[in-house]
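Progress against Task 2.4 (sequence-to-structure conversion) is shown through the following example record, which the project officer requested during the mid-term review.
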Amino acid sequence: MKTHKFQYKKTFKLESGKRLPNLEIAYTTFGTLNAQKDNIVWVCHALTANANVFEWWPGLFGDKDYFNPEKDFVICANIIGSPYGTTNPLSINPKTNQPYYLSFPQFSTRDLARAHELLADHLKIDKVSLLIGGSLGGHQALEWSILQPERIEKLILLATNAQHSPWGIAFNESQRLAIESDRTFYANKPNGGAKGLKTARSIALLSYRTYETYGLTQMEADNERVDDYRASSYQNYQGEKLVKRFNAYSYWFLSKAMDAHNVGRGRKGIIEALQLIKAKTLVIGIRTDVLFPPEEQKFIANNVPSAEYAEIDSFYGHDGFLIETKTLTQIIEKFIRKNYITSKHSATIHI
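Structure tokens generated for the chain above:
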């Protein structure tokens, strides 16, 4: 793995019209670009992940996994707003010489995709052989494929949607309410809102997993227990774990970007936008996903001209796109082996 940082020399204009000076993008590369430049695998990461895809997507990306540095040149860029090296709310605002905190300009998933464009230009990459992303990563990948349909050759979208749903927005708003209820969120310090972030993560977990997941993994064996439940400990542990590696300001802004995701904005509608995609596309849904139900992925596949749809079962709900790597490898390998997709409409594959 090689870690890099790209600094955009011009001012980055956001979709809102606001401007972000001194944009820095942290990114990692794995493997070697071949002479034909046709082995590029570009990964868009989700909400709290980072540019090291081998760290958070093992089983699909790794030295012995389907995507590996022996055959692939893997690129993963940390997104705007995320605290892992790219410009974010804790970065220094050149106008004040202080961290931005809540004065950071609001951004959208379209802005995240445009930052990927800038990095690809910097790397002199004309064609992205394969673009892949799940959840918020899928939002970015979808936007980029619409913004630059000629640049993206193959596209894989997992557990994502073309417009964020009222259900998803409600979950995000509940998390932001938790963060905002922590008075330290307004204190302008790096660990501001930490208790609120812990609660937000606890709320989020309920959308990432399922009733069955908790029923089997957190069930009490002791019939006499009246407090200190395993499920309670699990929620606390996961909340504290995120607080140690993330910050409330990044989480707040990124959740706002997710809410604003709508590929139809400024493009005469969602269906019209999806029909702009020219990449050979695979859309994968998870039957147990309550945050991004399969109907949302089917909608994408039915409206992208060269798309097929696959659906998997997972005990882990939405998180299945990160965990069910053996099954995903089988589906993805089959998709990539195809020379072309003959049907304009989606063909369902049941696994």
